[in-house]
Design brief:
Number of helices: 6
Radius of gyration: 16 Å
Order of helices and strands: HHEEHEEHEHHEE
Bound molecules: S-adenosylmethionine
Strand content: 15-25%
CATH topology: Rossmann fold
Structural class: alpha/beta
Helix content: 10-25%
CATH superfamily: Vaccinia Virus protein VP39
Largest sheet: 7 strands, mixed
Distance between the termini: 29 Å
Shape: globular
Strand order of the largest sheet: 3-2-1-4-5-7-6
C-alpha cells in the first residue's frame, strides 16, 4: 500500500537514472574517499561536537567512517563486504540494501548515536529508513547526516540531483519531520562553498524520548 507520507514529494522525486539493483553497482569495493581531507576532518569534528560516543552506527558506510577518535564500538552498515572489512575503526559491519528493505538487524534502542556521510541521497525509501534508525537508537541519541556537493549521479534520487545544496538541508530535515521518532532537526553549513575545498553540510536530530 502506498505510504501517504510520500504524498508531499513531487512525482519522480525518488526516481534514479539507474534503477538496476544497487547490489550490482556496489559489487566492487571502492577504497576511495568521497570528500577531501578538510571535509573529512570537519565531519569528524561534527561527530565529536554532537557527542557521538559509545555504541555508534554508521549508516551507508564504507571503509572509513571519519570519526576522530573512533567511538568505543562502531558498527557500520554498508553495501560492500570488502569495504566494511577494511574499516579499522569498526567492531562490526553488516551488508544491507536499505532500498530493498529498511530493516536493520539490531535490537531496538541499541545505539548511542548514528552517522551517515554523503549517502542520504541514495535512499529511495528514506522515511522507512529514518523510522528504522530511530528504532535502533536510544532516546536522546543523535543521527547526523553530513554531505557535500558530490555524488554518484546515476544512483542519487532525482529530487536531490535537481536541488541546491541549501535545499538538500531542507530535504533531510523533511525526512526527519515525516518519519517517526525524531525531535526537530537542526542544520548547519559546516564548510561553506567557496571556502577552499569541498563544502560540508550537517543535518541532525535526536531520537525522541
Ligand atoms: C558515496 S559512498 C559513501 C560511503 C561512506 N559513507 C563515506 O563517507 O565514504 C555511498 C554509500 O552509500 C551506501 N549505499 C548506497 N546505496 C545503498 C543502499 N541501497 N542501501 C544501503 N546503503 C547504500 C553504500 O554503503 C555506499 O558506500
Amino acid at each position: 500500500m502506498a505510504d501517504p507520507r510520500y504524498e508531499s514529494f513531487p512525482e519522480g522525486f525518488f526516481a534514479r537514472l539507474d534503477e538496476t539493483d544497487d547490489q550490482q553497482f556496489y559489487a566492487q569495493p571502492r577504497l576511495v574517499t568521497h570528500i577531501d581531507d578538510r571535509a573529512i576532518e570537519a565531519a569528524g569534528r561534527v561527530y565529536s561536537e554532537l557527542g557521538l560516543h559509545g555504541q555508534i552506527l554508521d549508516v551507508c558506510g564504507s571503509w572509513i567512517s571519519h570519526f576522530a577518535p573512533p567511538p568505543d564500538a562502531l558498527v557500520v552498515q554498508g553495501m560492500n563486504v570488502g569495504e566494511l572489512r577494511e574499516n579499522t575503526a569498526a567492531v562490526g559491519g553488516v551488508v544491507a540494501d536499505l532500498n530493498r528493505s529498511p530493516a536493520l538487524p539490531f535490537a531496538s534502542r541499541s545505539f548511542d548515536g548514528a552517522s551517515c556521510c554523503v549517502s542520504v541521497d541514495y535512499l529511495n525509501r528514506p522515511l522507512e529508513v529514518f523510522d528504522e534508525v530511530a528504532r535502533v537508537l536510544r532516546p536522546g541519541a543523535i543521527w547526523v547526516h553530513v554531505f557535500s556537493n558530490r555524488l554518484f549521479p546515476t544512483k542519487a534520487i532525482q529530487g536531490w540531483r535537481m536541488s541546491s545544496d541549501d535545499e538538500h538541508m531542507s530535504i533531510v530535515a523533511k525526512y526527519f519531520a515525516l518519519s517517526s521518532g525524531w525531535d526537530e532537526a537542526s542544520a548547519s553549513i559546516v564548510l561553506p562553498p567557496g571556502s577552499g575545498g569541498d563544502p560540508l553540510y550537517a543535518v541532525w536530530a535526536s531520537r525522541s524520548s
